[in-house]
Write a structure and sequence with these properties.
The protein has 24 helices and 17 strands. It has 668 residues and is an alpha/beta fold. The strands form 3 sheets. An 8-stranded mixed beta barrel has the order 8-9-11-12-13-14-15-16, surrounded by 4 helices. Strands 2-3-1-6-7 form a 5-stranded mixed beta sheet, with helices on both faces. A two-stranded antiparallel ribbon has the order 4-5. Helix 5 packs parallel to helix 7. The radius of gyration is 48 Å and the shape is rod-shaped. It starts with 5 loop residues before the first helix and ends with a helix.
């Protein structure tokens, strides 16, 4: 005979009468239960009043008036209490406590109504007695339905009411009442079965909903993370370009609606590329992170304006300045950012420095759309980089006129006939000691049919911007080489290359082909490359220079001392000449700093065994000073201004006569 574990059976039975501890299930039960419990009390009150009314004239007043009133009042108070719960936000602990309290209250309330019904029963006639039996049966079924979301309470009502009901009416011996008792027992059993099925399905539904909500929460969290990553710069963890333009669009729309100002700023780090080239990208990344952190701190502490800050890419950062800023606010913000960026950066065991150029544009003064406002800020930055490096520039009417002029130049350059509109002029490069012309630097001049004479400072950058610099370089090189073939064999040609020419294979290979086809010996050609071109892409520039050197061409580094090349660049390139910028020559007699800089550079050239060329010499005093400092070659108006090609023969003839006359005086 199997052994029955009474303890485990009792524990299982007791679990049926407990409120579950699952917070999600209890909250769902509470929400559904609080909507149906007023209906339960309505059934109790209406049925109780109806039964009490039937017994008014036959039963004592305490049974027909006092007890029903107390029970009805209790039910009404509980109804009011439950109605209030719908408007309250309760914690999981409060909900669990209320449901357990409801369980405990179900027992005395059910017992009270049952005892009152049995006490009233003997006073009625057969019809009234049948009404009591009907009242108890219908009411308990209604209560079970109303308590279906709280299974434990429904089971308590079933046991407290139905068990005494069946026993009481079975004991009467009346066949009709016995049949009603049996019928109520069967119906209640069916109702309990339905209750268990419904409760199980309800619990499964809550569990499924919980899983669905968890899935939705995980999906939303993933979506939020993807959105964050899509709008975050992975290196600096600053908002990225996408986020910047979204903020700009939103801020611009708000400023337009409110009729206030909003500004866009673009920051470019000056001197960052040499750090990348000299120390490597990992160090460059650390410098970018630190620079971004410094700028962000300034933006976050800049009041009363709100400043949105983002990394646009490379070493460029963007600002959106909200809060109706004016020019003074923008200049103050730019100054604070510049001061922070200029502070030293610890790079391994060395310190390095940066500066930054900043361009601002202000709505509505500068533009009427967000896109145009950004373009104006970009041009302000461009102007700062070219003319006011390390400074803050705010877009102005002067810059607007410059943009219009630049647009005109670009459009006319696209349709220009290089063979007829471009002229070449040549400036002598003279040996500092013998004053004999060693070569000529070729310079381009554009005579536009619409604009007249256009400065190279205007049309060369325009050609670079619109992608015409390579065909322009090639056309000019063909003509320059043809002119140089007519010169004496000891005269060299010096030709300038742009960053676009030396930093791409598409740029340098056609030039090599042109040199080979020209018939001019490559050893008579010097290609001048600016510091900017070298730092633009050092590896590619190094490859291009090596290819030109392999042909036998000379390489000069132009405008040395004004750009960002470092001594490591100079040592790593196969240079033949350094050209010292004219800015150091103008005050060489009066400025000890300029004197020391040129002295240092000539010493550097001696150490590296390369020639030193000084530009911008205009007086005899400057020439004498440069001779004493050991400069090799001189270029400037003191000897000659740039001249057309057909004037070179006369210039060389005059020079020979001058030198012959000087030599004759020395001999005499």
């Amino acid at each position: 005979m199997p052994v029955v574990d009474l303890k485990s059976h009792c524990a299982a039975a007791m679990r049926l009468f407990r409120v579950p501890d699952d917070p999600d299930l209890t909250r769902a039960q509470f929400d559904a239960f609080s909507k149906q419990i007023p209906l339960l009390y309505f059934i109790l009150m209406s049925n109780t009043i109806a039964v009490a009314y039937t017994y008014v004239n036959v039963a004592p007043d305490w049974l027909t008036m006092i007890v029903p009133s107390v029970l009805t009042l209790l039910a009404a108070l509980r109804t009011f209490w439950w109605l209030r719960q719908r408007r309250l936000v309760r914690s999981d602990a409060d909900i669990l406590r209320n449901l357990r309290a409801t369980n405990w209250m179900t027992l005395p309330i059910g017992a009270g109504f049952t005892a009152w019904s049995f006490a009233l029963y003997p006073y009625g006639d057969p019809f009234a007695k049948s009404q009591v039996a009907f009242y108890m049966a219908v009411t308990v079924i209604g209560c079970i339905f109303s308590l279906m979301h709280l299974r434990s309470a429904a089971l308590i009502v079933t046991l407290v009411v139905d068990v005494p009901y069946v026993l009481f009416f079975w004991a009467t011996g009346e066949p009709t009442l016995k049949a009603m008792a049996v019928n109520n027992l069967l119906v209640s059993g069916a109702m309990v079965t339905v209750l268990f099925i419904y409760y199980r399905d309800f619990a499964d539904l809550v569990s499924s909903r919980k899983s669905l909500l968890a899935q939705q929460a995980a999906t939303q969290a993933l979506s939020d993370e993807n959105f964050r990553l899509a709008n975050l710069d992975s290196l600096t963890e600053l908002p990225n370009r996408r986020r910047f333009f979204a903020e700009l669009s939103s801020a611009f729309t708000d400023a337009e609606r409110r009729g206030v100002r909003v500004a866009v700023g673009i920051i470019d780090l000056d001197g960052f590329k040499p750090i990348n080239d000299n120390y490597g990208h990992s160090v460059g990344d650390r410098v970018l992170i630190e620079a971004g952190r410094r700028i962000r701190e300034i933006c976050e502490g800049f009041g009363p304006q709100r400043v949105e800050f983002a990394r646009l890419g490379g070493d460029e950062f963007g600002l959106v300045v909200c809060g109706d800023p004016d020019d003074a606010d923008l200049l103050r913000l730019g100054e604070r950012i510049s001061d922070q960026v200029k502070l030293p950066y610890q790079v391994d065991t060395a310190h390095t420095g940066l500066s930054c150029s900043i361009g601002f544009a202000l709505f509505p003064q500068s533009a009427t759309t967000a896109e145009a406002l950004y373009e104006c800020a970009d041009y302000s930055l461009y102007h700062a980089k070219r003319h006011l490096r390390g400074r803050t520039v705010i877009f102005s009417t002067e810059l607007e006129a410059e943009i219009r002029s630049r647009g005109v130049i670009e459009n006319l350059l696209r349709t220009a006939d290089f063979s007829t509109e471009m002229d070449l002029v040549f400036q002598p490069i003279v040996d500092a000691m013998s004053e004999h012309t060693a070569g000529f630097e070729v310079l381009a001049r554009w005579h536009s049919s619409r604009l007249g004479l256009v400065s190279p400072a205007d049309f060369i950058p325009a050609a670079e911007r619109i992608g015409l610099i390579r065909p322009l370089t090639q056309a000019l090189l063909v003509r320059a080489l043809a002119a140089a073939k007519t010169w004496p064999d000891d005269i060299r040609l010096s030709f300038n290359l742009s960053a676009h020419d030396v930093c791409s294979a598409e740029g340098i290979l056609p030039l090599i082909s042109i040199v080979e086809k020209s018939g001019l010996p490559p050893h008579r050609i010097d290609f001048e490359i600016t510091e900017t071109a070298v730092t633009f892409d050092f590896v590619r520039a190094q490859q291009s220079i090596a290819a030109l050197k392999a042909m036998g061409c000379g390489i000069s580094l132009d405008d040395f001392g004004t750009g960002y090349s470092s001594l490591s660049h100079v040592h790593r390139l196969p240079l033949d000449k350094l050209k010292i910028d004219r800015s150091f020559v103008a005050d060489i007699k009066d400025n000890p700093v300029s004197h020391k800089i040129i002295k240092s550079l000539t010493g550097l050239c001696d150490d590296m065994e390369i020639a030193c060329v000084v530009e911008g010499v205009e007086t005899r005093a400057q020439l004498d000073s440069l001779r004493r400092l050991g400069c090799d070659y001189i270029q400037g108006y003191y000897f000659a201004k740039p001249m057309p090609g057909d004037a070179i023969d006369d210039y060389l003839a005059r020079e020979r006569r001058r030198l012959d006359a000087t030599e004759a005086k020395v001999v005499a």
